[in-house]
């Protein structure tokens, strides 16, 4: 359990993603791509792999895969319900689905 201590400047805890979060997906394959192999964990369970059918002649991109993924945690203080759709939302200039207060932001005059 991590306890913040401003006196010793120990107030950050780095996320240990594989141990702090559980990753799930809403569908084994991208909709309309039933011939894909779909999601699979690597043998060391450190990487999530999407196996796709390269012979289908249909293009996919990372956002197609990411929007199927969610990450959740039960650890207090860590953000939960992280969705793969956030990358596409940020690229489109949308508003984040989380409270950005407390996140480090670039100063406008930097």
TrEMBL record:
This protein's name: Uncharacterized protein
